[in-house]
Amino acid sequence: MKFLRILGNEIILGTLIAVLSVFTAVASWQGSVADGKQNEFELLGVTSLNDGNAEYLRANQDITQDYNYFDNWYLNVDEKPDAAEYYQFNFSQALQDAVERDPETVWDDQYYDEMYTEANGYFDDSDANFEKAGEWNDRGDGLQVVLMITALGLAFAAWASLLKEESNMRILFALFAIITLTLGIIQYLGIPVVA
Q1: Is 194 part of any domain?
Q2: What distance lies between CA 147 and its chain's CA centroid?
């Protein structure tokens, strides 16, 4: 028990309070940075998603227009070549490429892939940004746990410093403060780093 009495020393308790205070402040600051980064990447994800949706709708309109041009071209190719040429001139590049590839199977997967390329690019960006936001969220959650543990340890150290030096509760609270500091460090080291 004499060994544990050293935990009640004013210097030990003062050091614990200082270390726990700094550690709590660092965890709080890093948690707020993580929350800010999470919000930033969520906004980027939403922006890319909105742009992707707009581009997807535009591609749908272009595809519908291609259908119309192709149908009119097909109906006029034999009887009204001038009209057919007008419609063919207005084919999208993807439709022109599809006709060159295989006039019998115009509406193939490659055609749709080409038409939705920009929309899919935005959707991929959106997914990447939401994934990054999730990583920052996980980091922020981990830092919140560290913050809770170290704040609890700080409270133990503060209460220990208020008790008389010969009090067994002072030693117990100091021991709890050291345990929470250790747990806080272990938790902190286990938090994923976001690159």
Answers
A1: no
A2: 21
